[in-house]
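Subject: Sema domain-containing protein structure
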Amino acid sequence: MRTQKDDRVLDDPHFVGSFVYRAYVYFWYRERAADAQDNNRETQFYARVGRVCADDPGGPSPAQDRWSSFLKARLNCSIPGDTSPFYFNEIQAISAPVPIESGSDAVVYAIFQTSRALPMSAVCSFRLRQIDAIFDHGRFKV
């Protein structure tokens, strides 16, 4: 099984981790942001989380070898600024899901860095319940 071969689905992805949690498989990666450039006109990358149903059978023919439930969202690891947030866009590593709230939810910790022009790092946490709510209700920025 795979996604369709289309840069609009995955654009030069760099995968940093994946895991199965409950009914889904989560993929954590960074990919080229097709419509974004920094002040130096360099290509930007966005951190993303993708999700697919663990029992995804694929689409109908001729797409039976492609996931039909794949969704992705941009991850927001940032610090507030005077005029706009400062984003850490380049995800480097993730933890395994850490159970919280007596096991009813889990948190994933992720390490991020900035581009080489301004080297900084950050650790951000993401609740899987919140990620699922975003995928299930259509607001695709975590």
